[in-house]
Structures are given as C-alpha cells and as structure tokens.
Amino acid sequence: MTKNIRPRGFSPSNSRKLTSKDLRFNAILAALSGPEVDAVIENGTLVTLPVRYPIYQPDERIKDVYFPIDCVLSVVTRMLDGRQIEVGTIGREGMSAIPLLFGATTSANESYCQVPGTAIKIDAALFASLKMNGAFVRLLDRYVQAYVNMLGQLAACNRLHNVYERCARWLLMTQDRVEEHKISLTHEYLAMMLGTERSGVTIAAGTLQKAGFISYGHGVVTILDRPGLEGASCECYTVARKQFGGFLDSARSLGKLDATVPNGRTSPKRTKPKINEGVREE
Predict the structure, then answer these.
(1) Which of 100, 181, 208, 242 has the maximal Cβ count within 10 Å?
(2) What are 65's strand-pairing partners?
(3) pTM for the predicted model, two decimal places
(4) Model confidence over 82-101: pLDDT tens digits?
(5) Whole-angstrom Cα distance, residue 77 to residue 268?
(6) Which domains does the chain have, with CATH numbers?
C-alpha cells in the first residue's frame, strides 16, 4: 500500500455537449433509448479526465456520475495512516456511482481517475430519473452483480497469487477497457493497485519486460505481446473476462476495428469521440 498520492484541485481539461453516437461507447448508456437518450444528451457532457481527477470523496455527497469511455476509474480504501489500496476499477463496461444504486448518497471509499481519458458525466438527479426505466435498472443490476463478483475474486487474487501474475492481470484488464497498447502508469500507482511496495512493482514489471511481454519506461507501459501476457496472468483474468466480457463487447461492437500493435498483430480499436475546445455538435 502507498501513501495518499492524489493532489486536489484538478478539473477536466475540456468538455463538449453530447451526441447520441457518444453514448454507444459505454455499455450502460448504450442500452438507453427514447426520452432517456434525449435527457442524457441535453444534460450530460463529454469530459476529458486527467490522472487523479477526483470522482467522489469518502463521506461526501456524490453529486455526479461518470460513465467511462476510454478512461479507467479507481475505487480505493484509505487507512488511518494515509496509505491506500485499490479495491475496484471501473471502465467503459460500467459507471462510477454504484453507491447511488443502493439508495446511498455517500461512500466510505474514494474514487478518482486512474488512467486518463474521456467519460460521459451526468448529475446525480438525472441518474435517479434514469432509474425509473425498468430495463435500464435490470442492466445496472447485472453490472453490479458482475462488479461484486469481481471484488471477491480480486480479494482472493491479492492473497493467493504472486505479484507477477497480478500485474499481468491488471494490465490485461486495463487494456480491455482503454483498447490502447500504451497505458500511462507510474510505479507508485501500480503499487497501490497491486497492494505491494514499489520495489515489488519494479521486479514484476522488469520480469514481464525481460520476457518481451511489455516495455516500461517514463511512466508508460506498452503491451508488446498480449498472448504472452495472458499466459503470465493468473486465472483471475479469465474470470474477469467472463464477468465483464458481455459489457465490454457490447460497447466494442458499435465501434470501428482498426489498430495495429507494436509487434505487428492487429487488435480491435474503436473510433473514439473527439473533444474540441468549446461546444461542438455532430
């Protein structure tokens, strides 16, 4: 576990109004139809989140809900001495405000942006109105079930599997969410996510790099050999894909496939929505 590393005062770098096409890139919002789509387009925004941007704080009212597109959000638990450990992650398969689904307005944990990228932001009042849609609520229930199942799996993973396997699993899960081969990530963050010391991360990343699965330098991990990384991962990655695969694939299927990895393999990549300065309609 590491000390608190999230500075305050960040804000999204820019934003713009939404279009119906934007909603397709998040598995939860892609299921909306009719007036709910119109409400999100009218009242929501597409934002670019920097690393460490706060999503919600412990015991503070949750005012906004974020639906990631190509960013990854982290949910962490903080100890009294300031150390913290990641207890959950959220990508384009889900949404940030799980406590709101259970009638709560706050959380004992905190959440912030772990891997920078874009997300759709709506306020908590609009989210509450969307929950009046029975089909939407059923999809959220499925997502929460998958999320809770993964919490249990990752608790077991952190106790039973070595840091090399956990590192490979985390990188694979992150790549599934951002669909990029380069992931911005510091030693300090990865140590917090894996529940280990920075020295352990150095050894784990060095081992995976020596095997030719990744390259790592200047705060960026590049995945060079995904099949090799899958072989190095523990069984928990397969479980994660089973839990979230349907959500991830539903968002991916609506995008364009066009990408090449550094070693020449091809991999699916969506045509992600772009953000310009100010407001732009498509």
Answers:
(1) 208
(2) 122
(3) 0.82
(4) 888 888 899 999 999 899 99
(5) 33
(6) 15-156 (2.60.120.10)
